Amino acid sequence: MKYARLTKEQFEELHQEFINFLATQSITADEWEDIKKNKPEAAEQELDVFSDLVWYGVLSKVEYLEHISPNQIHLFKCKEKQMRLIALKIENKAIDFTTKEGFQWLRDNLLSDSIEFYNAKKDYSDDKHLDIFKMIQSGANITKGELFQYFEKLIGQDK
């Protein structure tokens, strides 16, 4: 498995897609029940293959990621060959960007000298999708990019 097995809840949400996946392999509902009962390792393999297909589809569409921690915000734009990063950092431990109050403080004090801005680009490794997946596994969230685009305009780096 390249990515990660979907959770039980995710499989339940994708029940119809999983049925279609089995159908593409000419596996009927009765055959699937037999495989689960008598060949559990084969059933596990089918679940893994399906999980990887779902993840690949999701990762192929990711354009923006955000990772917000108490004192840092990392905003990523996932381009074709490389990733752009806009990061904000604050040393003041009393400010927590993950709270409503901390985020409001950021909005009110955006141009304060206590906020450090970083702007960088990074090429992907040989596997763009795996790079993105690892970021999600480490806490990044897929977003529509509103925050990235806001800061991109603010710092004048809309390339």
TrEMBL record:
InterPro entries: DUF6495. It holds the Pfam family DUF6495. This is DUF6495 family protein. The lineage of its organism: Bacteria, Pseudomonadati, Bacteroidota, Flavobacteriia, Flavobacteriales.
